[in-house]
């Protein structure tokens, strides 16, 4: 490999790292501590996205709990379903995914009869995910602060809603930014969607916050506690 090609590859790698950094850090509203890396931030955001649900189905996109076994059942199993790769799965696969997502501290077992949105079929001895009616409000969060702890992280998120319902009745597509009480914070054109996170950062006093305690074990994150508004 020639010298020019080696230099070109190095430049591409550097630019890729910078690009990833720009994507990740625009999702951080205030600050981090203890030299948290881009990779750590990305891992934290990816994990929280996996367990962040839909308010209209689970009542809260992310409920408060002191222990994972105290979490609302509908939120718990919908989070597991969200992370299953297929629409048909065995009981064992559901349990394995729950342990993968929430760790060995989870002692709850999936109900053998299924749930409202995970139906059991006796003939096949399989479970099936069924559709659900979602509204035009997209439950979203912004990483606000990340603090390293002895065995993981404590993360503060800002919660907000992106409302697309007005687009159905307007000549121009709009996004309305709302708080979790569905009060309007701002309204922008859908062509300016990249401004959403900046609007959230500039209106932190109008939005609710939650703290998430995450444990890092075997390079995997697991939620241990959620508290806040």
Give a verbal description of the structure.
The protein contains six helices and ten strands, in the order H-E-H-H-H-E-H-E-E-E-E-E-E-H-E-E. It is α+β, with helices and mostly antiparallel strands and 229 residues long. The chain folds into two domains: 3-54 and 135-228, no CATH class; 57-129, no CATH class. A hairpin with a 2-residue loop joins strand 9 (208-217) and strand 10. Helix 4 (73-82) packs across helix 5 (91-102). The N and C termini lie far apart (57 Å).
SSE topology sketch:
Layout: H1 3-25, E1 28-32, H2 38-51, H3 55-58, H4 73-82, E2 88-89, H5 91-102, E3 118-121, E4 126-129, E5 137-148, E6 152-163, E7 174-178, E8 184-189, H6 196-201, E9 208-217, E10 220-228
Parallel strand pairs: 1-5
Antiparallel strand pairs: 2-4, 3-4, 5-6, 6-7, 6-9, 7-8, 9-10
Helix pairs in contact: 4-5
Q: Give the proportion of residues in helices.
A: 25-40%
Question: What is the strand content?
Answer: 25-35%
End-to-end CA span? 57 Å
**What's the helix-strand series?**
HEHHHEHEEEEEEHEE
Q: What class do helices, strands and sheet pairing give?
A: alpha+beta
Number of helices: 6
Quick one: how many beta strands? 10
Which stretches are low in confidence, meaning pLDDT under 50 for 5 or more residues running? 20-27
User: What is the total domain count?
Assistant: 2
Average of the residue pLDDT scores? 86
Report the major sheet.
Answer: 7 strands, mixed
Evaluate the radius of gyration: 20 Å
Shape: globular
């Amino acid at each position: 490999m020639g010298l020019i090609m080696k230099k070109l590859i190095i430049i591409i790698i550097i630019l890729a790292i910078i690009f990833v950094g720009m994507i990740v850090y625009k999702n951080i509203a205030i600050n981090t501590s203890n030299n948290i890396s881009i990779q750590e931030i990305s891992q934290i955001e990816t994990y929280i996205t996996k367990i962040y649900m839909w308010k209209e189905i689970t009542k809260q996109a992310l409920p408060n709990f002191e222990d994972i076994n105290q979490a609302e059942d509908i939120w718990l199993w919908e989070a597991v379903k969200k992370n299953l790769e297929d629409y048909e799965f065995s009981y064992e696969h559901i349990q394995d995914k729950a342990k993968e997502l929430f760790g060995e501290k989870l002692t709850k077992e999936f109900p053998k009869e299924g749930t409202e949105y995970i139906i059991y079929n006796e003939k096949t001895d399989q479970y099936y995910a069924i559709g659900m009616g979602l509204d035009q409000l997209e439950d979203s969060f912004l990483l606000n602060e990340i603090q390293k702890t002895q065995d993981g992280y404590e993360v503060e998120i800002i919660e907000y809603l992106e409302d697309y319902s007005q687009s159905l009745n307007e000549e121009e597509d709009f996004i309305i930014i709302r708080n979790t009480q569905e009060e309007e914070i701002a309204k922008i054109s859908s062509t300016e969607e990249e401004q959403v996170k900046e609007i959230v950062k500039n209106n932190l006093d109008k939005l609710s916050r939650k703290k998430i305690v995450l444990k890092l074990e075997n390079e995997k994150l697991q939620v241990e506690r959620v508290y806040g508004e």
